[in-house]
């Protein structure tokens, strides 16, 4: 664990190299890697998770590169978000997804490579699915949990930009999940109701 950045930390102007072909950032402060073994509860088909692990081993599902910016109002957080291609059963590789801890903070995702969707869902179940492909920007308003879903053959790579003090709240998504899921049906992505909604940990 990195030490929490002192809130009074002064940020000097800086720039950072970031390869739009693979999303890799030069000298990131954090490189977060999420492997399947730590994401076993977020899929619809639990048997498919076991099956996948047996067949392919512990696989990198997504990763994030970021610079450490103080978590305070007025700053802007940014990162490259890379979701790898793959499927657990019929369900595409995706990020855990979260609400922002400060619920009213928005985010934009500027997609550079790949093909996918941003699933955005409010606590009352109202949801939107926006396409992600190179050159497309998704605006995620406050109060929407959001998750990137890769429906393509290659990595889905975006630059995500959000409020300095947004924070991440993963709790309710980990326990309840999203009400909706994107799965492959007849070779195409299709949205369905999540049959495990409300009981992801059971
Ligand atoms: C993104 C996400 C990133 C990884 O930077 O954090 O895509 O997804 P999870 O955070 O759901 O694991 C973002 O939305 N930040 O707020
Ligand atoms: Zn976010």
Descriptive overview:
By secondary structure, this protein is mainly beta. It has a single domain (25-193), classed as Jelly Rolls. The chain contains two helices and 15 strands. The protein has helices at residues 46-56, 171-176; strands spanning 30-35, 60-66, 76-83, 87-88, 91-92, 99-100, 107-113, 116-121, 127-132, 137-140, 145-150, 156-163, 168-169, 180-185, 188-193. Strands 1-2-3-12-7-10 form a six-stranded antiparallel β-sheet, with no helix packed on it. Strands 9-8-11 form a three-stranded antiparallel β-sheet, with no helix packed on it. It has a two-stranded antiparallel ribbon with strand order 4-5. Strand 8 and strand 9 form a beta hairpin. The longest helix is centred in the first third of the chain and has 11 residues, at 46-56. It is globular and about 50 Å long. The model has no long low-confidence stretch (mean pLDDT 95). The structure holds 5-phospho-D-arabinohydroxamic acid and zinc ion. Residues 64, 79, 81, 95-98, 107, 146, 148, 160, 162, 166, 168 line the site of 5-phospho-D-arabinohydroxamic acid.
């Amino acid at each position: 664990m990195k030490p929490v950045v002192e809130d009074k930390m002064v940020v000097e102007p800086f720039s950072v190299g970031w390869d739009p072909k693979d999303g890799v950032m030069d000298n990131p402060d954090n490189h977060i890697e999420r492997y399947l073994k730590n994401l076993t509860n977020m899929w619809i088909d639990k048997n498919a998770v076991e099956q996948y692990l047996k067949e392919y081993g512990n696989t990198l599902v997504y990763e994030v590169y970021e610079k450490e910016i103080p978590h305070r109002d007025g700053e802007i957080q940014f990162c490259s978000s890379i979701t790898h291609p793959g499927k657990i059963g019929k369900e595409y590789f995706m990020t855990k997804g979260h609400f922002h801890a400060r619920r009213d903070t928005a985010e934009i995702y500027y997609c550079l490579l790949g093909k996918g969707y941003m699933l955005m869902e409010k606590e009352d179940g109202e949801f939107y699915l926006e396409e992600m492909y190179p050159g497309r920007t998704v605006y995620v308003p406050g109060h929407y949990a959001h998750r990137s879903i890769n429906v393509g053959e290659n990595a889905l790579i975006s630059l995500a930009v959000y409020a300095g003090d947004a924070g991440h709240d993963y709790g309710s998504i980990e326990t309840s999940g999203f009400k909706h899921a994107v799965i492959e049906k007849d070779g195409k992505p299709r949205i369905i109701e999540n049959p495990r909604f409300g009981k992801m940990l059971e």
